[in-house]
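Milestone M4 deliverable, item 7.
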Amino acid sequence: KSDGDNAAPSASTPAAVPSQPPIGGDPANWPADLESFAAWWLAEPSLDEGGSRPRVAPRGKARARLMILVPAPEAEDTETLLSGPQGRLLESFLAAADVAAEEVYLAAGLPRHMAFADIPDLAQRGLGAVTLHHIGLAAPERVLVMGRDVLPLLGHNLAQSPVSLRKINHEGRSIPALQGR
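Output delivered:
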C-alpha cells in the first residue's frame, strides 16, 4: 500500500454538500383537493423556512373566474391573506373591474411573509412544483401574477421579459396568465 492511498482530500476537492429534501416532500403525498391543500399549506414543515410571522392560507373556491398569485402574504396578514393595505387596494381594483370577491381565488407563493426570501432558490428546491400543483388544484379560468418575484415559481426565468408569460401550462391544461406589477 502506498502512502497516497490514505491521503486526505486536497483543499481543492469540493466537500460534499448535504442535500436538502425537496420543499413539499414527496409529490405523491401532496393533497389531491383544494380544501386539503389549504390545511397542508399551513402545516407541512418542508414548506416553511421559518420566520416570526404566521402562515396564512389561500382563500377562495376552486374554478374561480380569476386566481391572483402574490409573492407572499403582506406583513400585516395574520389570519387572512391580503387583509392589509395591498389587499384593500386590490379589492378596490376588483370592484372597479366589476369582479366580485367570490369570483376570485387569492394565493401566495410563500406560506408566510418573509422580507428577504430567495424565491428563485426556493423555486428550484421544489416550491415551484408546489405552486404549479396549487394552481392545478385551484383550476382557475385565468391567473393574474402580481409582481415579478412570483415568476420563478412558475418556471419563468427572470432574465426573460414578463411579457412572455402568456399561459401556465401544467398537467395537460393551459391557463391564460398575465403578469402585473
